[in-house]
Amino acid sequence: MPIAAAVDPTLTRGQANTQPQYRPGESVAVSSLAGPSVKSHPWERMLAGRRPDISPLARDVPDDFYFVEFRTLTRLLDAFDAGDLWGTHLFNQAYREADTAGVGERLKRQLAIESDPRLRPFYDLVVEEVAVAGSDPFVREGSDVTLLFRVKQPEIFHARMDAFLSDAERAHADARRTTGQYLGVAYVQIENPERDVSVIAADPEPGLHLRSNSLAAFRRVVAAIKGKTEDGTVVRRLGDTAEFAYARTLMPRGDEREDGFIYLSDPFIRRLVGPELKLTERRRLVCYNHLRMIGHASLLFRTEHGRWPDSLEELARAGDAPGLFGEGALSCPDGGHYTLSADKTTGVCSRHGHALHLTPNVETPAAQVTGAEANEYHAFVEDYNRYWRFYFDPVAIRLKVSPEQYRVETIILPLIDNSVYTSLASALGGKPEALDSLPVPRRDIFSASFRLNKEKYLDDLGLVEKGAKPGEPAYVFGHPTDAAMNAKAADFVSRGLGNQVGFHLYDAHPTFDLNTASLLGWLFGSGVGHGARSLGGEEFYIALALTSLNSPVYLSFPVRDAKVVDDYLTQLDTVLSVAARNERRGRWLDFEYDFYKYQLPTGETARAFGLRLDPARLRFFWARVGSGLYVASKPFILEDLAGAAQGQPPSVAQGQPAGASQTQAANVDADATGHALVRVRAQNWNDVLPDYRLAWAENEREACLNNLAALSDAARALSARAAGQTGGQALSGEAFDRAVVELADRLHGTHHFCPEGGTYHVSPDGRTVSCSVHGTADAPRQPVGARCASCRI
Ligand SMILES: [Zn+2]
Ligand SMILES: [Zn+2]
User: Fold this and answer.
1) Which of 79, 227, 567, 768 is buried most, with the most CB atoms less than 10 Å from its CB?
2) Nearest CA to 677 among 471, 407, 417, 291?
């Protein structure tokens, strides 16, 4: 959150020492490096002896693993699917990319778990509870994932699950089955070299089934279940910690609003930024880039010579690689040995594995690093301690997954130290209230409501004191007012208004060609594990500001005392009239104020205030209507609001469509109680929808066409003939088209697809690829008028 960090007063406190600590060439033990020094909360004190219900599965995992528990496996699978769906489509929109890593599918294959919809009744019958845990979040590249099942009917469950294992073994000719034991727990392991199947299955206790894709992670979980490791070291279990119990006092287990619960503990976040994981992942990334480069060099070789290379040496000799991979700057930083994969589409590292399924970090912890790496980590810690201190809070998220609703709630745990969260908590403090209770016009498409800690603002504004000190002038739009006015202002805020503010977006034809669909993708896709491109908070605010420029907006304030509010508005009229009569020319900018009062068709008094800075003019309108005070960017919004308050249609103004004139009942909702609430009212998207749809479809086209370069590269390589080689291609037509997509997918480690359901075809000369819906990059096509296939809004 760069913006938030910018206002954090701790930033100005002292200069960090970022002098290098080590000589670049020296060898440094990772265990000698210290992580960020941010404190933990006093959990025991915060828990204050309470004993909330903790699931047995939380007591089966180490405290430095992330932990996700679901009431049913079906809900977990739904969440997986929804995650893939939303993740995929939002990325199409935000980054104009149409490829998917298919993380959920890949994991299910690795772990030999089938999720056919027909199996769901079976799962619901035999699985009582399920959890997912792991030591780091790099699931897309390759990470340890362990599933824990509490089973109701072990015999039925095992028959099925064992069958899945045998199926996976049969499906991979190179898979190997081994058995072993750890801390007295017998396990079965099935793995192939590429690791697209990699599963360890065991039953450490009656009614508990484990499935992990990593032996190292499996051992950590078994040690947690048994309470100690092989050498007798006691293992701290997540479910036994005070912090987890504290989170469960805020989000109780078994709440009907909970299908799933995600918890990222303090030790997990410490591990994320700690030296071992940071340096291990850094080395793995360098290696990963080499493995991918090998794949691209190999493709180039195939295109030039009409056959795949035999070895890395041959690639280097042919000049298709920048040198010999595995030597000098092109070697694995963690000492791995590189070879060409069996299908020649990537490199394989003896330490970090295959590019499509990297060996999880938990299996390859870096023990010794160079002085240069240690210095880099040291600089990171210095930065972290300065800027990112608030990151050390655990994160708890509650999920509700149903076809109609995908609901995500999170809690921000209170911090002891001064930080962004405390300022947020104090801004939004006080007792939670039912938010968003004012009537809403039909054309309200998006709302964000906040419960403000008003008393805090009164202090900050100095209104309380100023109101009490007669004779001291204050300034409203540059004009001095008197103490009476200040008293009214203080009264207005403290007694007149309620504790809330709402921001609302209105349905309208967007004025600028601003891509709102892309902005929304940006807003909600930000930070969803897209690696280095994941967005921080800054873009969120920019996107929000741009959206408000683009569509009519209004602010709503619930009114507590109508008379106080009206008095203040009347008083303000005088001040504003004076301001409007006095021209502001001759100062640093030539601008004029404009102010007038008018009646809404329903009788309420409205005010308009304009700021003219020729040729631009910024206007806003306000009125108290019923129990709400509204400030709007367009006059017709006030009319709609007045109509909504009266429960009758407002007059149709300014050529707005008649559909806008219906009203909607006030929205009082027990679910809406809290400090902040965001609501997307998709049912009201009428005018914006054609524009959104077109923008959406345009983004889909761009995303689709962005795939064509990778696909044509693959097509050229596959259709290349060796010198003297004659005869037709081994594959042709659809089979060749499929082979091209498959090769591109393996080379890039993602799946390339047309989001509109088009299919990719290779031209007869094998040089270009086109989409059946969108054409080619040179001759793009955009289906016009048609509803886009992937729009789900
Ligand atoms: Zn490596
Ligand atoms: Zn397409």
Assistant:
1) 79
2) 407
